[in-house]
Structure formats: structure tokens, C-alpha cells
């Protein structure tokens, strides 16, 4: 937007390296949303909450969030365009309403903006780390410690541009983890994100030599327990409602693919038991 002249500083086009001072006047001219060519598709969605400003949904494993080469249909955006008449356009032509995203083979909670004001407010919360996300992950190996933190910058892999990696000078990335249960060769973790970088949890856990089970990109090629992707689920999402100011927290129970993997790993408890266990571990987290 700076290069397009849409941001002015004290009445003049701002430069990318401009520094602001107290008393400066910054004006932003948001462009009109571009009419999308993405087609609406009648794809079922699991919506947990919806009002005039936003909706919260539980994305299934295997669904791409927004259209991309090789995935121009069957995405969350295609489904949203069918189910909701008006969506925020700030995200651009291919991402109407999308505030944040999760990987295709990761399941879990997402918040979607239904107007531009909600989109800006929610985006600011994710940028400022006042919106919080918690995940459950089954990982390879038996982690000896009960809890820990990975503070390591992430950027594109210097050789394989389709992957992310821990790279000096990359974007700050911090992941907190706690052991929820141990199954000998596998461990169930509860994780909280301070930042939300692409593939953050997967890269950070792989750096501990405990990659997410089923993750063929950052872990082993073998996928046990009938998994077709990584055993990673965003089970909790917290943010402040952009209109009412109410702090809202949502939970998504572990999906069947995750529960089946846990059962085969040796977990005797029910899905409700596991979710309650994860909730107990949230106490004292940075969120």
C-alpha cells in the first residue's frame, strides 16, 4: 500500500523506511475490494458461532483455506462465499473474510470477518498477539521434559522454498508446549502460540527432534495409525469481539482422525477427557 501511494504521512506519500513521531498524521486510503472470480460452492461447514460481524468455524483436516495453484476449488473461501452473502474484502481477491489461516492438513478453529471493520480489528489482535490460539499435537518420541518453550526465528527454507525453517534473521517465533500424556514412543502435547508464523508448530517441534506424528514434510515419511496428515488440531481460540468488546473463547473437540491415532498410541480416555486435560494445562500460559 505504501508503494501504491495509499499511505500518506503528514499530507505527503509515505516512504517504506519512514519513521513516525508523536504528533504525525498518518492517512490510509483502503482500496475498494476487488470482485472475486472464485466461485461459491455448497460445502458443509461446522460453524460454532455467527453474528453480523464474524463467524467461528472448525476447519476439517484436508480443507485448504484459500484458493491457490492446484487448489482452486473446494476451499474454505469457496464454502464461505456460498454460506455468507457479504464478506470482508481486505484480504484481497482470493481471501475474502480470511483473518488468519491454518495448514491444509491441520484441523481446528478459525475466525472469519464479515465486514471490513471486523477484519481490521481482528487482524490487529493477531498482529499484537492479543488473540490466542492453543493446539494439541501428537508427536514422535517420548519427550523427557514436562514443559518448555521454543524461541527460534522462522523463514523460508534457503533451498526448498516450499518449506519453512529456523533461519537466523527470520521472523520471531515463540511456541510454548506442555506434556499432556505419554504413550512410550509418542507424546501428546498442549501448545500455545505467542506468534503465528507459517508452519510454526511443525518447524519448532521438528527442531526438538520430536516432529508432529504423520508430518511427512518435517518428520518421518512413514505415517502411522492410518494418518493421512499431521496429528495437529487447533482446539482453542480466544479474541475480543470487535463490536461488543466481549472476550470470547471457543473450543473444538479433537476430531475422529486425532482420537483414533491417540487410541492406537495407547490413550484409554475419551475425547471429552482429553479436551479437559488440555484445558487444565492452559493455566499459567501466556494467553
Automatic annotation (TrEMBL):
GO annotation, biological process: enzyme-directed rRNA pseudouridine synthesis
Presence of keyword Isomerase: yes
Record SUPFAM superfamilies: Pseudouridine synthase (SSF55120)
Alphabetical list of InterPro entries matching this protein: PsdUridine_synth_cat_dom_sf, PsdUridine_synth_RluA-like_CS, PsdUridine_synth_RluC/D, PsdUridine_synth_RsuA/RluA, RluA_PseudoU_synthase
Classification via Gene3D superfamilies: Pseudouridine synthase (3.30.2350.10)
This protein's UniProt keywords: Isomerase, RNA-binding
Ranges where the Pseudouridine synthase RsuA/RluA-like domain occurs: 53-207
A Gene Ontology molecular function term of the record: 23S rRNA pseudouridine(1911/1915/1917) synthase activity
PROSITE patterns: PSI_RLU, S4
EC number of this enzyme: 5.4.99.23
Protein family (similarity comment): Belongs to the pseudouridine synthase RluA family.
Protein's name according to its UniProt entry: Ribosomal large subunit pseudouridine synthase D
Biological source species: bioreactor metagenome
